[in-house]
Amino acid sequence: MSTRPSLSTLRLVWLYPDLLSTYGDRGNLQVLAYRAIGRGIDVDIVEVTSDKHMPTEGDIYLIGGGEDGPQALAADRLRADGSLPRAVNKGAVIFSVCAGYQIMGTSFMAKGEQHAGLGLLDIHSQRGDKRAVGELAGQIDPRLHVPTLTGFENHGGRTFIGPNAAPLAKVTHGIGNDGTTEGAWAGRIMGTYLHGPALARNPLLADLLLSWVTGSQLVPLDDTWPTALRNERLAAVNPKQLPPDANNAMELM
Amino acid sequence: MTNLSPRARLATALLRTAATLSRVSGRGDGSVIGGRVGLKVEPRLLALLAENRQVALISGTNGKTTTTRFTAAALGALGPVATNSFGANMPTGHTTALAKAPEASNAVLEVDEHYLAQLLLESKPRVVALLNLSRDQLDRAMEVGMLAEKWRTALTAHPDVHVIANADDPMVTWAAQAVPRVTWVAGGQRWQEDSWACPECGKRLDRYGEYWRCTNCGLTRPSPQWSVDGDQVVDPTGQRATLSLQLPGQVNRNNAATALAIAAEFGVPLTEAVPQLSKVRSIAGRYAVVRRDGRRARLLLAKNPAGWLEAFDMLDPGVPVTLCLNAREVDGYDTSWIYDVDYSPVLGRQVLVTGDRRFDLAVRLQVNGIDFTVVDNFAAALRAAPEGNVEVIANYTAFQDIRSEFDRVN
Ligand SMILES: [Zn+2]
Known about the structure:
The complex is a heterodimer.
Chain A: E1 9-15, H1 26-37, E2 42-48, E3 60-63, H2 68-81, H3 83-89, E4 93-97, H4 99-104, E5 107-110, E6 113-116, E7 123-140, E8 149-161, E9 166-173, E10 181-186, E11 189-192, E12 194-195, H5 198-201, H6 203-214, H7 224-237, H8 244-252
Parallel strand pairs in A: 1-2, 1-3, 3-4, 4-11
Antiparallel strand pairs in A: 5-6, 7-8, 7-9, 8-12, 9-10, 10-11
Helix pairs in contact in A: 1-6
Chain B: H1 6-24, H2 31-41, H3 45-50, E1 54-59, H4 64-75, E2 81-83, H5 91-100, E3 106-111, H6 116-123, E4 127-130, H7 144-156, E5 162-166, H8 170-176, E6 182-185, E7 205-208, E8 211-214, E9 227-229, E10 232-234, E11 240-242, H9 250-265, H10 270-277, E12 289-292, E13 295-301, H11 305-314, E14 321-324, E15 351-354, H12 358-367, E16 373-374, H13 378-384, E17 388-394, H14 396-405
Parallel strand pairs in B: 1-3, 1-4, 2-3, 4-5, 5-6, 13-17, 14-15, 14-17, 15-16
Antiparallel strand pairs in B: 7-8, 9-10, 10-11, 12-13
The site of zinc ion (ZN) has 8 residues of chain B, from loops.
């Protein structure tokens, strides 16, 4: 796969904000842009609404969560457009969330019917018996060298991972795909159920995606605030690890 | 009221006692507990108390408390008004509001969006005002499209009710069109992220300024009979009246227009209604100014992305702003929505950040390119600001925490 070692402008493509843009997933775009600019990389953001053709020259494609109707519509449009698989063949990175994550798989359920996905990730999704809502934490696949995954999930899906994809994380708190694993990845395609948004809560995951494009390690940023946020959220799901004063703070919440 | 059955009378008496006890023991204003007691004794109490009164219901994601207060003030020109002025906007609160004002022949009730169907059934309103629908408390509330559908279904069962609706909101328009008689108000829609798609057919809506339409099925913005032009409100006959509101922001001028449209339906002339609105200064702490150590902090409540956008529009230029974010049960546990808000309107002023979830806000502001200072609590935020005016934007429980520091300021 190609990388762009002399990268001067990062091309971020935000897919279908008109259909899939609930739960603050736009934040993933903002975080990637912020973290690229912090490394001296210019950013070119393209927002593609569902009535437009998408460019195939993007470096990172983002797609977010949404309701059943828009999800089915987005899958239809993406399949009709046909550009996303072409972009993947050129080495593009995809970061997909919730409804968008399910669309990357072979099939998903929306409004009680099975819909075909793009088949870019070897996963398929079903309805769960109850909605998964709340904080999630998990240990990210060690091959990715990214610390603990944290985020907020709110979905009714259950996702099953085939042999050609790997779970993004092992769940230690929350439900994720099935109560055991959360998200999936293969090559440069990644998906997760997490909002929060996911990349705001997991800045080094954002850096991983960026490094897939640049092909090199990135210089660290001052992550005082993301670190404070992560520590607070991870402590909230695992109070045993709290120092004593933080325990008092929890009671006030 | 005079025709109440002995059981309903007993229920009303018990309700008032319970409400008073709860109030004097410092557990809120007692509306919820009182209503609960009354409805236990007489489950039809709300319907019985609403009988023989002219009822106006007001619902929507944002602005319903303010619009209810404006409307109650305007109808005050006709005599006493029963109203749930503490924002207790579920049936327990409505029952209490009616029980506490037996002499009032008019009632103005703020209704939680999810309870509109029940209130239509039980209070048999003369008028229903629908303000807006947008994302709110995402981890538990119904999503916007489903809520619009629920409203539309509820209204379909009550074709005689007169609806006053915001023509600028496609979701509201579609729901309101379930009844034949609608008065349209240009109620504004700063937040449009929840109405990209046509609620009727799901296709993309076209927008040209405030005008919107669906090229697929023909759903179109109705021409409003009431509108706001600068600081003037224009009624269906073209008559203009200058608003001199104490409450800030374009959104409150729009809320005033809706209140005036309701008042007109109740027979209050525009010229009599408008001065009544100027008497409203603050509502359950919203827009109130609290003072401490030379700081005058104005409190703005903003519970969701649309509300934060409206709050930014109210900020006095250059004044420091404190942003307070919690994520307790009533706020919704998911803070992701802060990424749906563009914070650049606060650029160029001192920004202080606090609340249980201040770190979420800190990360958000950082990627928005805004300088900020994180402080542990509201008291520290005030200390960090220079003497003089401070603006405060807080979501629900953060707002209530601040109010309780200042004797539940109204
Ligand atoms: Zn349509």
